[in-house]
Amino acid sequence: MQTLLRVCRNVLTARAPAVWTEPQNRDLMVDARMYRDYKRRKMVKEYAFERLQYTAMKRNDILPKALQEVVSQELHAFPLNSCFTRMHNRCVLTSRARSVDVRYRMARMAWRHLADYNKLSGVQRAMW
User: What average pLDDT does the segment 116-124 reach?
Assistant: First the structure.
């Protein structure tokens, strides 16, 4: 729990740029899994348009089968990390991949901890 508090305090007090210009600076990432996911997201963004075109051509029934097979082979030649299904929603504080709320980009445990201590703007634990 102390490490979670330390990570939360560092994230909330440190400046967090919107886009990292230096990918080798790993101080902004919690661990290697978060850095790996960052690299995957960058590659997905790079190849998204081409992948979409090739996928549409592959699924098109009007095109000849020979052309569809060529397109399928070229689609398989793309890097594996350029596929969007290899990305995971990760917590920005702890890099946890499970139970991440998409709106806050935080795991439920980190979210509850910050909500308990009134660190989230406009969020209050349920009371009745």
Answer: 83
In the block, tokens 């406009």 appear at 122
Pick from 49, 67, 66: nearest CA to 57: 67
CA 120, CA 123: separation in Å to the nearest integer?
Answer: 6
DSSP code string of 64-125: -HHHHHHHHHHHHTS-GGGSGGG-----TTT---SSEETTTTEEHHHHHHHHHTT-STT---
- Domains (ranges, CATH) in the chain? 28-88 (1.10.287.1480), 91-128 (no CATH)
**pLDDT higher than threshold 70 for residue 3:** no
Tens of pLDDT, residues 78-115: 999 999 898 889 998 888 999 998 888 899 999 988 88
Q: For the whole prediction, is pTM greater than 0.70?
A: no
From residue 44, give the alpha-carbon distance in Å to each of 4, 93, 102: 30, 23, 19
